[in-house]
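Work Package 3 (structural annotation) set out to generate three-dimensional models for the target panel prioritized at the project kickoff. During this period the team completed the workflow that converts sequence records into discrete structure tokens, so that structures can be stored uniformly alongside our sequence database. As a representative example, we reproduce one entry of 267 residues exactly as it appears in the project archive.
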Amino acid sequence: MLDVPAQPVGNEGNTACVLAVVNQKGGVGKSTTSVNLAATVADLGKRVLLVDLDPQGNATSGYGLDKNQREQCVYDALLGDVPIEQLIEPVGVQGVFVVPSTIQLAGAEIELVSAFSRETKLKQVLSPVLGDFDLVIIDCPPSLGLLTINALTAATGVLIPVQCEYYALEGLTKLLESVRLVKTHLNPGLEVFGVVMTMFDARTKLSQQVVNEVRDFFGEQVFATLIPRSVRLSEAPSFGQPVTLYDPNGRGAEAYRNLAEEVIARV
């Protein structure tokens, strides 16, 4: 656990950029991007808090934390009385701290329905520690339910991973509508921070066609960095490491380092 001094909710000293990594489609690289972007931004000397808001807990296990052996997780902060400071854990990358998730979080979607201020729970939970980090990354579940709405309400920006495959743009209209509704009713400062293309395969025409389509749609919001399809990127989570530790000289690590520089330039 991290020893973070508590501050009142809504303090004026909050400085962290809070990015919600969102796409309601599964398998597009949300957790891979969350884990590796946290590591590469920390390598640039920043303090990063990674909040795993997906009941699958892939960002948790991606840093070698055993999601099956945890007594408490982000659920206990959202729906219990556990301060977030008691859930924050350092991991094997200097500057990266993780709020883990377990399957217990799956019940939160239903339990939040009847909760007071249900859309702003995560924002309230994170507020005391925002001043301790340069960047907060929220790894969202593959849905547009209350957990994702909480992430959008707590965030300053939305980072959208898009897989370089058929139907890449499918569902994004619904995601952008949700962002608009949250911006209108809950979080006026929310913006689309950027779009990152994942699983790019330079050997196929399809990948480049998808990149072109997404750039036509989102314009300069699309990052120049293309995250390649890489076996080493896929293997790294099974070893509980970001790719910068598992394969530091590989294409995946290089791509996420480039993405981190682009992200920092936009913050």
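The CA atoms of residues 17 and 232 lie 29 Å apart.
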